[in-house]
Amino acid sequence: MSFLNLNLNLTYQNIHFRHPSSSSSLPIPLPPLPPGISRSFIPTPHGDLEILHTTTTSSSRQSALFFIHGGMGSASVWLEYLSFFSQQQQQNIPCYAISMRGHGGSWYPSYLRMVYGTTKGDLTGDVVSGIRWAVDRERGQRKQQQLGRGVIKGQQGRQGKEGRGGEKGDDVEAKEEVEMVLIGHSSGGGLAQYILSAGLLGGLSVKIKGLVLMGAVPGFGSIPIYLTWFRLDPLFALRLLLHLGHPNSPLSHPSLVRLIFFSNDLLPDSYLSRFMSFMSRYESLLWPLGMARSFADSERVLLRICGWGETTKQEQKQGQVERVLVIAGERDKIMTQPIVQRLADWYRAAYERLVVEEKKIDGVMVGSENETVDEEVEGSGGPKDTAGRGVRFALVPGAGHHCQNDVGWEVGARKVLAFYRQLL
Fold it and tell me: Region (Disordered) spans which residues (predicted)?
């Protein structure tokens, strides 16, 4: 922090007021995709939305993972995780990552429209469009697999009566809901909470089996986060004034991005430069303002997660019903440990009310203390994770705010995988 007191870190290289397609502005590069990952575009009334997804299909009905980026990000911030989860042996986990408008390869509003006219609700609509597209794709792939199995059965001499029965079964299966786990980072984690709290996934034939909040803006409001940011960067206001109020000002210099998003100097400069090249040219101001105060109801969020009553009482006593994972970098400087711990406790208190007082969730309270998570993550070190009252709390040792991109990101990915497996 000391260098910030001496150095304004003022640069205009990453301050853009023009649309990326403008002749006077450099276009945003789309990163090459690793094996097994594809890029598609979702048509919407305003423009196309970029979505990255796995190309492999699974014969078993794995719950899909749907990733939501935060401010200044895009689907590309999830490339490491997409590769990790899609390559898990015997899993073939279907994965999707959306780029909201004004981010990544999605359509770009003008500067004024994006900064002053794009609300939390607008971006939520983009996420819901991505979930709808993912659900339709999953159902389509399952139907193709069912048709393929029907062809094989027909070649083996299936009788007409059996064929009619199979067709009926296929029709029933095609109407089944797709199971999905939402994973939101930073402000994207805030949107995930808002979507569930407001019940915006009704009619999409999707069952949310779990929720991962990664360095997420808490549903009770983000004011403490920005107060922490101001303390980290004492020249925040002066630099913002010199940048004419541009929303990218706080992250306009590599030193600032490293300070706020990452943990230390171990991250290579080459990776940091590549990371910054994919950042959005300008960001909505109404998005964070819409999350400054409480914007989600913790009980409603939990009630819209399915599967609380699917496990046995013995499994519940063993702590196997955590359907919310609150995870953050151990060295996150803005979503600090007290903030994310408070978020986990917020949901644990809601779970306790729903189980004990309101009896709306079929769960078991095992004492008042949280238990240590059984799964050991190789090389994790650091503080022990906890599980209890429907919520798992985890830290990624040595990682900063972008723990999915920082040094040691694989440790966090394994912790998310352990959470995912206990949902099955």
Answer: 139-172
Domain boundaries, the chain: 2-139+178-423
Can you name the CATH fold of 2-139+178-423? Rossmann fold (3.40.50)
17-22 own/partner pairs: CB under 8 Å, 24+ apart: 17/111, 17/246, 17/282, 18/111, 19/108, 19/110, 19/111, 20/108, 20/281, 21/108
